[in-house]
């Protein structure tokens, strides 16, 4: 799913082929059903996401549910095996900052330039905020990074957090920014 799709239609008169008209429409696809997060392939590729934890704050839909998977859009380049793995997690919100770990996934091999979905299970409450988190074991600052769009949600990161280690309480925070990371949860 891309962020935006442009479609241009040109019509030519049958009576006078020198007469044409064009119209362009920009379409942003809707989020998949029963999701929360940012289900859009961002325009920008992140950096330095390897061996750190990146989390973005998103609000759950207006119904209770159970998260069954998380999806992240991971851009090229990707480190060679075995450093082509990622994990995701969900943290509770603690007054606008990430709080306690709710759930984390197993490791999965990255498919570059694609949505990568991984099973994860967590009960979530209607309208509550949660922090969707990403961790990867890439070897360089320019590998295994998520796509994102500037502005929007609050995002944080923990620097120098080894891959596969999810702190029970999120922190220490290495920095904050405002962007929508290309990641979302699917719930039922």
CATH architect. name: Sandwich
How do the SSEs run, as a string of H and E?
A: EEEEEEEEEEEEEE
Number of strands: 14
Contiguous runs where pLDDT drops below 50 for at least 5 residues? none
Radius of gyration over all CA atoms, rounded: 19 Å
Structure, explained:
There is one protein chain. The chain has 188 residues and is mainly β. It has a single domain (32-187), classed as Sandwich (Jelly Rolls). The protein has no helices and 14 strands. It has strands at residues 5-12, 20-27, 35-37, 44-45, 53-59, 65-74, 85-93, 98-104, 108-109, 114-124, 129-136, 147-158, 175-181, 183-187. The strands form 3 sheets. Strands 4, 5, 7, 8, 9, 11, 12 and 13 form an 8-stranded antiparallel beta sheet that branches. Strand 7 (85-93) and strand 8 form a beta hairpin. The radius of gyration is 19 Å and the shape is globular. The two termini are 21 Å apart.
């Amino acid at each position: 799913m891309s962020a935006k799709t442009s479609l241009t239609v040109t019509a030519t008169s049958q009576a006078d082929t020198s007469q044409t008209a064009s119209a362009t429409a920009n379409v942003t696809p809707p989020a998949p059903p029963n999701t929360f997060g940012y289900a859009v392939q961002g325009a920008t590729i992140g950096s330095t996401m390897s061996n750190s934890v990146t989390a973005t704050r998103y609000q759950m839909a207006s119904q209770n549910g159970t998260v069954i998977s998380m999806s992240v859009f991971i851009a090229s380049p990707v480190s060679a095996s075995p450093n082509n793995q990622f994990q995701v997690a969900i943290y509770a919100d603690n007054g606008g900052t990430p709080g306690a770990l709710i759930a984390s996934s197993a490791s999965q091999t990255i498919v570059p330039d694609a949505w990568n979905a991984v099973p994860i299970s967590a009960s979530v409450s209607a309208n509550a905020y949660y922090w969707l988190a990403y961790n990867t074991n890439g070897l360089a600052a320019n590998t295994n990074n998520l796509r994102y769009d500037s502005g929007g949600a609050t995002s944080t990161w923990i620097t120098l957090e080894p891959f596969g280690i999810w702190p029970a309480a999120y922190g220490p925070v290495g920095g904050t920014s405002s962007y929508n990371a290309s990641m979302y949860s699917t719930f039922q």
